[in-house]
Write a structure and sequence with these properties.
The chain is α/β, with parallel strands linked by helices and about 270 residues long. The protein folds into two domains: about 5-70, Chemotaxis Receptor Methyltransferase Cher, domain 1, CATH 1.10.155; about 80-155 and about 185-270, Rossmann fold, CATH 3.40.50.150. The chain has helices at about 5-20, 30-40, 45-55, 60-70, 80-100, 115-130, 145-155, 160-165, 170-175, 185-190, 225-235, and strands at about 105-110, 135-145, 155-160, 175-180, 180-185, 190-195, 210-215, 235-245, 260-265, 265-270. It has a five-stranded parallel sheet with strand order 6-2-1-7-8. Strands 3-5-4 form a three-stranded antiparallel sheet. The longest helix has 17 residues, at about 80-100. The chain binds S-adenosylmethionine.
């Protein structure tokens, strides 16, 4: 379904203003394919009709649907493996030792998509750190997308989704079948607190965090926005905390207050002291 250049630019600007996500000029095909279903749902006949409708109505609901449709939500359980190994072998043993007297640990997944990442962390905690049952552990997962948060909270995954990254053993232990879906067990679901949060806004509602997973989301922003988000991260990350980014992301040449640390096969970031 084609879209006029000026309407494509309108959508690009809208997405950038509201989410920080940069859609490059060659992404017209993406807008055309991802928004086609909204043309059918709104009965606007064409993408140009949909944009005209949006310009006239200034509907918040339609704007949110367009934003959600334009986000890339690719994720899977224990994605890239190494950050989770580093969390298990180096980061959590160290922090558990350091926080022994406090008995408190805060972890934040800053772009959790459909929930596989925070649930992977929750499973990792449950499997390897039984001593945390007597601690106050806050595992916060946030995303801009309400539909992704709804899916996360439901904790319901298809066969294909559980096949991606989960061993049969973990699936058996922490999910139960429900129709043609796999439902995450309540003991894991209740470990995660889901919040809607736009990374381009302030993180003032966040407590001080020990470990931040902010993976595969900075790639969508321009340099200025990456810097702004990292400055926000700096404020909520505890002095001795750890930041994990996606494999194609780094703080290098963006924010000198972070230093990369190699933990076996994973790279994570710590605050320069
Ligand atoms: C590719 S997914 C990454 C999921 C997970 N972190 C992973 O690595 O598997 C990117 C997520 O970032 C979210 N996102 C994009 N812009 C955002 C923003 N400004 N604030 C919060 N979340 C955002 C999208 O909704 C999407 O769910």
């Amino acid at each position: 379904m084609p879209i006029q250049g000026s309407n494509f630019d309108f959508i690009r600007q809208l997405i950038r203003n509201r989410t920080g996500v940069v859609l490059s000029e060659d992404k017209m095909y993406l807008v055309e394919s991802r928004l086609a279903f909204l043309v059918r749902e709104t009965g606007t006949n064409s993408l140009d009709g949909l944009v005209t409708h949006l310009r006239q109505q200034k509907s918040n609901c339609l704007t949110q649907l367009i934003i959600e449709a334009m986000m890339t939500n690719e994720t899977f359980f224990f994605r890239d493996v190494h950050p989770f190994e580093a969390l298990k072998i180096f980061v959590l043993p160290e922090l558990l030792q350091k926080r022994k007297l406090e008995g408190r640990l805060n972890i934040w997944c800053g772009a959790c998509s459909s929930g596989q990442e925070p649930y992977s962390i929750a499973i990792l905690l449950q499997e390897n750190f039984p001593q945390l049952s007597s601690w106050q552990v806050k595992l916060i997962a946030s995303d801009i997308s309400t539909s992704m948060l709804k899916k996360s909270m439901a904790g319901s995954y298809s066969q294909h989704e559980v096949n991606r990254g989960l061993s049969a053993g973990l699936r058996q232990k922490y999910f139960h079948p429900s129709g043609n879906q796999w439902l995450i067990k309540e003991e894991i679901r209740r470990m995660v607190e889901f919040r809607q949060m736009n990374l381009t806004e302030t993180f003032s509602s966040m407590p001080q965090i020990d470990v931040i997973f902010l993976r595969n989301v900075l790639i969508y922003f321009d340099i200025e926005m990456k810097r702004k988000i990292l400055a926000g991260v700096r404020k909520v990350l505890r002095d001795d905390g750890y930041l994990f980014l996606g494999g194609g992301e780094t703080t290098v040449n963006l924010d000198d207050s972070f230093i990369p640390v190699q933990l076996d096969k994973a790279v994570c970031y710590r605050l320069r002291r």
